[in-house]
Amino acid sequence: MKTVYGEMCISDCAVRKWVRIFKGKVPRETILRDRKRSGRPLSASVTAHREKVDCMIRANRRVKQKEIANAVGISKEPLHHIVKTELGYRKVSVEMKAQRKDMCTQLLELSTIFILA
């Protein structure tokens, strides 16, 4: 099979494993999907986490995600999802953009004054 399909071909070991799993069972009764398992929830973005993260960011805009993750008690990946997707924060705030625009406008006005003088 590897000569025909190349390296993307399924291994003999995997085929043998599947044969052991499905041997003796009626194909219609065989479940191919993962069953639900107990354990950690897939998402840590509950309302309490969102509120804590939002309060920390509003209190200190320069706080690092690692510090927030340690304080809230979740990993960085769910925290990143909360910050970016659910809260809509970005790296550069709107206030910073407005300040930059004002500074550039002032510099442009100053440069035209010096050129005209």
UniProtKB/TrEMBL annotation:
UniProt xrefs under InterPro entries: Transposase-MT_Hybrid
Top-level taxon in the UniProt lineage: Eukaryota
Identify this protein by name: Histone-lysine N-methyltransferase SETMAR-like protein
- What is the protein's species of origin? Plakobranchus ocellatus
